[in-house]
Amino acid sequence: MPPRPPGFSPSRLRQHPAAWLALAVACVLLAAGLRAAQVATPPAVAPPSADRVAAVRAYIATGWTTLSRSLADLPEAAADPKMPLGPGEAWPVYVARSERLDDVRRTIDAILEGERRAAVTLLSLPAQATSVERHGLLYLPRPYVVPGGRFNEMYGWDSYFINVGLLHDGEIARARDMVDNFVYQVTHYGTILNANRTYYLTRSQPPLLTPMVRDVYRHTLDRTWLAGTWQAIERYYAFWTTPPHLDATTGLSRYYDTGEGPAPEVVSDEKDEAGRTHYDRVKAFYRTTPIDDYDVTEFYDRAADRLTPLFYKGDRSMRESGFDPSNRFGPFSVDIVHYAPVCLNSLLYQMEVDAAAIAAELGRDDVTIWHQRAERRRAAIGRYLWDEEAGLYFDFNVRHGRRRPYEFATTFYPLWVGAASPDQARRVVTSLPRLEAAGGLLTSTVRSGSQWDAPFGWAPLQLIAVRGLRRYGFDDDADRIASKFLELVTKEFEEHRVIVEKYDVVARESEVSAGITFGYSSNEIGFGWTNAAYLDLLAGLRERRQ
Fold it and tell me: Do the beta carbons of residue 300 and residue 294 sit within 8 Å?
């Protein structure tokens, strides 16, 4: 029903038939105008000029070395701004129990000496991850690239994007080392970790191992190396597709941290100017704010002013998703354990497709099995996560059997991995203006005070959306978003001479702290995945011009 114009009166219209025609025309024009406003193509933005790009490219090329950590850099790698040391303490570095501590010690002794060797102490990892009392770095044998700033370790999903950038810059050896470290993590720590610190041993991050393997293999064509990744691929896939990550009712998977209680790094580090931790701020929110998204009593004991064990389980699992935090699964996303998310299941579809391709390359006999797994998941994504009415992909609440209509940039993941039909892709693109801003793609359409909501935009989501749009032929839209984000990053680099982790894509600024209440309000400098997205978006534009 179109909206009624001011002064509308049915009785008056009956007395003046000509007015019916005028009203009909006005309503049609008004409705058409509203529809046009909803889907109007935003104006194009010119990408930064070649001379401006050159300065950013030089910064990025230097950054791969600045952000690299090897055994020779172990004192720098072991340093953790999230867990400061006491006076005179050495940084602890833990070695997996499946390794011989004395062998690793001899390796380190041959590389480090004097004060640098004394700056770290090697310890054997306890049998139970939760029994670690003095948190520290987890040993990795190969060099790796860290994101930057307070993130001085090798991260799960950051590393995929960093590898994209490394390969664009011809850093093939570094990219291969990154994959080798992930294979090592699966072998010796049981999974690819959120990052290689002891307080991350209970969770992973979004699974991107197989695209990293295939990207490196395209550059090396080393089948022996490729075969050496297979066991880790199978084991990591099992991690995500068996309980507690598997939801048996849908056949889809969820995020789930196996640890209990507050996340140690959050208690230690995520404090505001008043000294309140993230959890203190959450309790203050629960005390004063009505919430309809979920049953708050499951997460907050009002009488005791205490967060419940389920809250901490959800909080930790939200951090496994990489989106920490947003309101995507309700305030602070702590209801995430009851959802099959669009992002995770899209990535597992990609893993199944990749595994089939790798198996075929290696001449294995399980290629068909992997194709069947991928097809089952693609069908489940369409059944449970696609919302026909909205024309978007939404996360599915497995407990209540319904999708949560929260508009989020993860709607582009099925396009990125090729799980969407052409019509579904077209429908998603129709809603693009709702998530598009002056500086690129918004994370969501909601301003919640969390860093993974509006008005903030993050580099990996720009890359994912742009690649997804290109995959389905929406190159003009991809060019426009890429140009907006490239111009924003370039402008802020020229003003501050650094590249950072996240941006306000509405105000087109890198100053974000004033708008962030939940999460950490700092904007970290480096920054691995922004460097990578910048290179990838540039490459996409250049390919279009050729």
Answer: no
The residue written with tokens 């490459």 in the block is 539
Is there a catalytic annotation at residue 324? yes
Say whether pLDDT at 18 is over 90.
Answer: no
Residues 350-404 have pLDDT tens digits of 999 999 999 999 999 999 999 999 999 999 999 999 999 999 999 999 999 999 9
What is the distance of C-alpha 475 from the center of its chain?
A: 23
Name the least confident of 23-37, 75-89, 531-545: 23-37
pLDDT at 40: 55
254 within 8 A of 339, measured Cβ to Cβ: yes
Catalytic residue chosen out of the listed positions 324, 354, 477, 504: 324
Do 155 and 147 touch, CB atoms closer than 8 A?
yes
Query: Which single residue is written with the structure tokens 């203050």?
Result: 284
Write down the pTM of the prediction.
0.91
Q: What is the pLDDT of residue 544?
A: 87
SS (H, E, C) 285-350: HHHHCCCCCCCHHHCEECCCCEECHHHHHHHHHHHHCCCCCCCECEHHHCCHHHEECHHHHHHHHH
Structure tokens at 5: 């114009």
Is 270 among the catalytic positions? no
Q: Which one of 479, 492, 501, 536 is the catalytic residue?
A: 501
Give Cα separations from 99 to 141, 187, 189 (angstroms): 11, 11, 11
Tell which phi-psi region holds residue 131, choosing left (phi > 0), alpha (psi between -120 and 50) or beta.
Answer: alpha
- pLDDT band per the 50, 70, 90 thresholds, residue 87: confident
Task: Round to whole Å and give the CA distance between 64 and 206.
Answer: 23
pLDDT in the model for residue 37:
38
124, two tokens: 């054997």
Distances (CA, A) of 300 to 131, 312, 320: 26, 10, 21
